[in-house]
Amino acid sequence: MILSVPEGDDKPLKYPLMFSIVDVLLINKIDAMGVFDFNIEAVKERVKKLNPDIKVIPISAKTGEGIEDWIDWLRTEVINWKGK
Fold first, then answer.
1. Strands of the sheet with 2-4, listed across from one edge
2. Which domain range does residue 76 map to?
3. What is the helix (H) or strand (E) element at residue 79, kind and residue range?
4. Distance between CA atoms of 57 and 62, rounded to whole angstroms?
5. Taking the model in full, what pTM does it have?
6. Can you supply a Gene Ontology BP term from the record (predicted)?
């Protein structure tokens, strides 16, 4: 699932079911956190309470930050899926 910084850090509070069933959360547009009132640590804490096993990956398409982490996660998931 993708949560974009402009959507706000309270989205897990508004839609808890979504966050409780996904395997990974991409927090996108982290390069814009200075422009928006967005507390990434609060988001991580909220989603971990809803889903202790969720993988949270902050990313920025603009700067490339976190993209390799996301690719690594995808690669691992594909390998695990093929192994079933």
1. 2-4, 24-28, 55-58
2. 2-82
3. helix 67-82
4. 15
5. 0.91
6. protein maturation
Number of structural domains in the chain: 1
Q: Distance (Å, rounded) from C-alpha 84 to C-alpha 81?
A: 5
For residues 75 and 5, what is the distance between their CA atoms, to the nearest angstrom? 25
CATH number of the CATH domain containing 57? 3.40.50.300
Question: Where do we find the tokens 């808890």?
Answer: 16
**10-residue averages of pLDDT along the chain (84 residues):** 96 96 97 95 97 97 96 94 79
Burial code (b: 16+ CB inside 10 Å, e: under 16) for 66-77 equals beeebeeeeeee
As a residue count, the chain comes to 84
20 close to 29: Cβ distance less than 8 angstroms: no
